[in-house]
Fold these 2 entries.
Entry 1:
Amino acid sequence: MDIKAVILAAGKGTRMKSETTPKVLHEIMGKTLLGYVLDNVKNLTSEEFVIVGHHADEVEKYVKDNYENAKTVLQTPQLGTGHAVSMVCPELENYDGLVLILCGDTPLIKEETLKKFVEFHKSQHSDLTVMSTIFENPTNYGRIIREADNSLRCIVEEKDATSEQKLVKEVNAGIYCLNWSKIKPAFSQLKSNNAQGEYYLTDIISWGKAQNLNVNAYILEDSDEIYGINSRINLAQATKMMNRRNLEKYMLNGVTIVDPESTWISEDTQIGQDTIIYPATYIEGKNIIGKNCKIGPCAHLRGGVEVCDNVKVGNFVEVKKSKISSNTNVGHLSYIGDSELGEHVNIGAGTITANYNPLTKEKSKTILKDNVKVGSNSVLVAPVTVEEGANIGAGGIITKNVPAWALAITRSPLKIMADWVKFKLLK
Ligand code: UD1
Ligand code: CA
């Protein structure tokens, strides 16, 4: 059966206290919150609708630039989560499949969980399934209220809950699966007579019950997955949770992480076996790291980086959008950006690829072919190519292409003045 996703991303995110960035575009290790949700749902769905409102232009641009099957739908004004979903009704007028609803602010949800959730929905012949979980501290989440026979009754928001309801630890994860044609009528019947004066999506549960539809809850065991980001404190906590999950995956695959407490590696990084990641290393965005590499301590990979096998990226080295071929060393204190490094290249300490021209505001590439050796403290001013086997003398400022097997040297001659100290300073 066809599945389409609706992702709610129009809210203001008041509790983030951000003037410049809409909540769903805040990042965890180089990827936006919305990006995580889209990436984890897109393999299950034929089309995704992102509901945008606050900072709509930015969110729209982000979606357009990064997700070709996703469409944005504008919600103005933002009258609540139920109102948000109702915005897709015209788009899905004759649609008869499943709709998966998610929030753009719960980035930890996994693709395999969503798969199981949809399977559960189908196996129960459910018309509407809501994902729930148990939180020791359920504050701020909607509570799942059940009947005496344990079947669902409704969801009550924190602000509308009685003190007795507030004790309930089963919460609404904000993820729903619906048989669209059966639940669609609910969206023209939601009311806003609640503490926040909003059209609550959560009210589709009691609506479905009143219509005698088959309404179920799927209880998620790993409650971490639906951790929602409402504040910067949540953002830091989610980053930690995501990181721990990623590091465990890498370690189980044969990567040594010397100090998991101080190492950060994004979900979209692949790492080969027997690679060692030393402490205080930060790896964000999409990267591929080969086998038997040594990364760090204190290395920073900023995304778009491909590191082949047996490569060393040492301390205080920053790499961005570059390929480093096998058996190459970038040992110390270097910046490698928009570059291609061949095999058996050696980069001396303090080497910089100057990839940005402030006059043209353009970034250009640095290409170093196999066996190139770059002396310490050199600057490679891009665009520039150093052909195979060429050497750059220490302190070189390389503004022109260097032919194969040549030596390029830009040093002024060394002057040594005998006894200068004795005569000038000590007399
Ligand atoms: C919501 C649920 C709550 C659940 C929690 C899980 C409702 C009424 N409450 O609460 O039961 O436990 O998520 O995380 O649904 N949004 C819009 N348009 C709007 C309002 C919100 O697109 O008009 C979007 C927001 O951008 C956000 C999502 O919907 O991505 C959830 O909104 P938020 O205000 O964070 O709801 P919660 O209070 O967390
Ligand atoms: Ca939320």
Entry 2:
Amino acid sequence: MNVLTRKSLDIDAIRADFPILQTLVNGHQLVYLDNGASSQKPLYVIDAMDTYWKQTNANVHRGVHHLSQKATQQFDAARETMRVFLNASSSKEVIFTAGCTASINLVAQTWGRTNIQAGDEILISTMEHHSNIVPWQLLADQVGAVIKVIPMTDAGEIELDVYEKLLSDKTKLVGIVHVSNSLGTINPVKEMIQLAHKAGAKVLVDGAQAAPHMRIDVQALDADFYVVSCHKMYAPTGIGVLYGKQQLLEAMPPYQGGGDMIYTVSFEKTTYAELPYKFEAGTPNIAGVIGLGASVEYLATLGQQLLGDSEGSLSQNLDACFGWIEEREAELLAYGTAAISDISGLKLTGTAAHKAGILAFTLDCAHPHDVGTVLDNQGIAVRTGHHCCMPVMTRLGIPATTRASIGLYNTFEDIDDLVAGIKRVKELFG
Ligand code: PMP
């Protein structure tokens, strides 16, 4: 990719990197505003996976032959890339999983099963995705632990004073979403982690909606566990990352048993592989991991363009890229918030002071599913429903919302199209 000397990025060039954005839907150019559910993939990622299938496909870690060594090299390089992406102190702390949900279940069933006992408390917030609720409920049922819920305000902000009061020496784990997928709230996770640690509890941060939008630094956060859903960060589906502090991961029993996670096997006694392999049983999603590494490289090349001639490190390039993403998405969010707030009968869901690029709303004249269908007729992809956050809907007394979620290729014109689309819904249903 060209190294350009400019402080901003050419959005048309970025859009051209994502071939699917040229698709016509119902006769209209696609307006993709469903990034919270899954992002589109740049050609750079698609090509990396295609090249793997065509030129280096083989199983990793077990072969002495050329292809296996090539595949292993690429696989291991992607782990190091993800270490830098998260600023983990060691690549042993980067575990590949099938996704965010898989990562949380892994922690609940390994760390949770060994560290949480009857009567212990697990704190999770009202705004958690079901993926950060149900694994803890399963664990609580298994060990007799108690789930306590950190409430939120009408705007969708954590009630920090209540959180502080809920923390006690009974609290063993706090599960908190970094950026809410249903509301867009960016939670004060660093402060929440400090408070949890003071009470002696560990913290799992659900970073599914944070990783595509902001620079993550697990060391600065002091997160015990941080989970990432890669298909939302321009990488393929079926791949996720679990970060865990090394000393916690070392002490945890394995999750699934099988190939690759063992050191020796005998019928008398099996010993387990070192980190990170201890938690990666079976043949991994090799193409997915390579695609993930490519997605981070793609973001880094955008950062490199911003930095100009100076050849930055991966970390510096990511800093630059996410600096741009944050600024741009904040502008799009402000523009979109102002525009849709002007529509009569529309109520925004999630009005936290600190928000990422999510515009969720209800319309008084139409059910969200009808809104979504009419928008789709105009080529606009949004998500409707409870967004796997039924407790948020219950808290706000609504059955569902329509959610537009912004990604790095979205434009002000996309927001204009969304607003025009909502006005069309009002014409039809109002
Ligand atoms: N947490 C949040 C906040 C999410 O938005 C999602 C996906 N919608 C998940 C967890 C689940 O992620 P995955 O699809 O990787 O299992």
